[in-house]
Design a protein that fits this description.
A two-stranded antiparallel ribbon has the order 1-2. Helix content is 77%, strand content 2%. The protein is mostly helical. Helix 15 packs parallel to helix 18. It is globular and about 70 Å long.
Amino acid sequence: MNLATHVPILAIAVPLLGAFALPLLAKVHRSLRDLWVLLVGAFTVAMLVLLAVQVFTGGILVYTLGAGTPGDTVPEGFPIRIMLVVDGMGAFMGLIAALVGIAGLAYALQYLEEEKGKTLALTLMLLLWAGMLGLKLTGDLFNFFVFFEITSVAACGLIGYRVWESRPPEAAFKTMVMYTLGGLLILLAVGILYGEYGALNLAYLSAQIGQGPLDQIALGLLLGGLLMKAGSVPMHMWAPDAYGEADPSTAIVLVANTQAALYGLFRIVFTLYGGAGSPAVGGLVTALGALTVIVAVLMAVLQTDLGRLIAYGAVSQIGYMLLGAGVGMATLGAAAGGEAGFGLVALQGGVFHMMNDAACIGLLFLCVGAVVRATGARDLRALGGLGHSLPGVSGLFLLGSLALAGIPPLNGFASKLMIYQAAFRLSPILTALAVLASILLLAVFVRAFQGVFLGPRRPLGGTAAVPTGMWLAMGLLAVVVVAFGLVPDLMVRHVVAPAAEALWTGREAYLVAVLGG
């Protein structure tokens, strides 16, 4: 079998089957389980990198399940088989999943304790990883909903499996309520579109969809469900609890899961609806993005729990992504070339910030794990002086904090600058709010760094020794933070721009790739 031909399905099937096999292997021996996790993780990352190379060098990739050959398009112009369709945006999201997934698994293998559900957590992480990849690569709305639900079930399990504690199950319940409501909205929209057009293939629907009332109702339902899962204000109340109460290796995968919902929102607006009603939708998304940035940063100021402080920082970054994408939606199809130009820059900034956020927020959460391992505490009032015992972790925490606040020359600065410049063209007030929020966020994280790592040495409640797997995971994310900040143009030109343009101008190419000329 030629693996290169079957890369899309292997990227989903391997972690999915790996999740089901993992508990059985754990019964045989723990070392076999850990080796299995590493093999599944490494193979999945290799498939996602190969997939990205194929798409960025060869164009949109269509994989038809059950066809004579995987590359077969639909018979007689009507899609009757399940398809995986990967364009630049899908490939880009696959790279984010690869980065976060392998870092989370490597960290979890040495951070999680055997007697506290390690096998269960690893199984759910692989299941969540497979669900995210399926959601990003699928070419039809029904399987989009199926994978949406897989990620919801796995995420809630990861948040709340520690039933011997009081707060994680409560956080999981809040998350479950919001995910269930979001899923119901999406399912209702899927039913409306199927009843109207008799098909659920994204490309076929995109070619048929109009501006009727049912189409607009379906769009509203889809946006509502996806914004709930993305953690946008005012539907964000689950996110700080989920991120803050999950263990660090889980938290970074949950952030990527949130970004998968954002990807779904982008795919629906740009590809399915072709930007129909984009000024109104863009105005809504822009307003929600600005509101999310401000509310989350103000809430971060009030936090004394290190995990929840970073969780609110993560929510604020969702606002920047929504802001960039919203400005792009608001200007899509504008008659003036200048307007269209800055809209594309805004979209590129929002897309680029997804990768940058995954790296710097992920690094901060993993640093929290090292702090908890060393002290058994996360309360800023009970911490201090850890820079003496954890100098490497303190340096990485500072690096992640500066990147999150958008300080040059780190990766957060590059994507935020693109968003600032484009948002200013739409409204200077948007840029002013976004810059002020970044300054305030910097102050919050400087306070956190001072409270946790500076001051006189204190006795530790745990061990200051950080295992190799944890160092490798933090080191990988730190390299991304620095490298993408030093050479952002390289990343934007070869990866981010093709991803954003797949949404901005790639609808016709998407339809042709699936439905034929």
